[in-house]
Amino acid sequence: MFIDLPDLAAERFGSAVVAANDEFFAPKESLIKASAPEWREGVYTERGKWMDGWETRRRRSPGHDWAIIRLGLPGIVRGVVIDTSFFTGNFPERASIDACSVAGLPLVEWLLGPQASWWPMLPSSPLAGDTHNSFAVTDAKQRVTHLRLNIFPDGGIARLRVHGDVVPDENVFAAGREADLAAIENGGFVVLCSDMHYGHRQNLIMPGRSTHMGDGWETKRRRGPGHDWSVIRLGRRGVVERIELDTDRFKGNAPGSAMLEYCDVGDPPGSDAASATWRVLVSETPLQPHARHRFDNVSAPPATHVRLNIYPDGGVARLRVFGRAAAT
Which of 155, 220, 222, 253 is exposed most, by the fewest CB atoms within 10 A? Predict the structure, then answer.
């Protein structure tokens, strides 16, 4: 299901709602807030009922309302969720989404002008109120940088989630340039893990350091034999040179030790890393709580995937896999 893919429009990635034709009742910026929508009973502003989302006034003339979103992570969109939570008598009847791909950071005036080439990504589709309206995008092939959400004719949307495959700027992997091959903004993706009871596996490769203990990958307490693990598909097949493993904020629940392995399943990377031959990248090493561990001078052939093994269980805030893209 596409909702397992990164939200390309997430606020934490630097996405922004750069323009809207109307936001009388509720601001456009709320469309991409990280938090789930909330309801505040009996709370009103000088313009009307307080709503957690983007809401336009009642339209009394022909046309429709719209908002333009700059994606923090450009990529290929696989599906969207148009969330109308708590909008029960004031949600749009229908919505559509247009897309464009633009280099750099164009001004709003440029995006609104004739030079911007928009194409339909999601056709006009019916919406239900107080619902997570999910729509798969089946024929997406092109990298997208901006979206235009159209609502017909007016109303309110609580959140917009845009799930897809990250396609970074190729300059990130220019010849000889070091990059974090595992970073989600560089196309990395945590494809599998043994358990993520307390913290989602994708947190491992999110930007920046963790903001709290829930902003990492954390497993339940293991009561039997074995150990926990996560498999990361690198954004590019590359030669790994150094590793950073951060147990930031995990003070009483960091793993006792960790080991990293790598495999190479081709260029572009194949999907079946589970049956690949895994080799040791960093041998099993004790870990300290709430600390950033660095492993320099790592030497290995090109890799497409890395497997992080933790013993026996616990939490890791971030994993950085620095290296250089291998020649195709």
Answer: 220
Rounded CA separation 182/231 (Å): 10
pLDDT of residue 156: 98
Per the CATH hierarchy, to which homologous superfamily does domain 2-166 belong?
A: Galactose-binding domain-like (2.60.120.260)
Q: Coil, strand or helix: which one is 224?
A: coil
Query: What is the β-pairing status of strands 315-316 and 48-49?
Result: unpaired
Q: How far apart are CA 192 and CA 307, in angstroms?
A: 9
Strands (E), 228-274: 228-246, 257-263
For the chain, what are the domain ranges? 2-166, 171-325
Q: What is the pTM of this model?
A: 0.93
Residue type for 256, please? Answer: G
Contact status, residue 278 vs residue 257, Cβ threshold 8 Å: no
Please give the CATH superfamily to which domain 171-325 belongs. Answer: Galactose-binding domain-like (2.60.120.260)
| C-alpha–C-alpha distance, residues 293 and 281, integer Å | 15
| Selection from 257, 256, 246, 320 nearest residue 290 by Cα | 246
Residue 273 backbone dihedrals phi, psi, to 5 degrees: -75, -20
Q: How far apart are CA 304 and CA 295, in angstroms?
A: 19
Could you say which DSSP state residue 100 is in? E
Residue for token digits 């009103």?
44
Query: What are the pLDDT digits (tens) for 43-87?
Result: 999 999 999 999 999 999 999 999 999 999 999 999 999 999 999
In whole angstroms, what is the distance from residue 174 CA to residue 202 CA? 25
Tokens of 270: 């194949």
Q: What would the two tokens of residue 294 be?
A: 């660095």
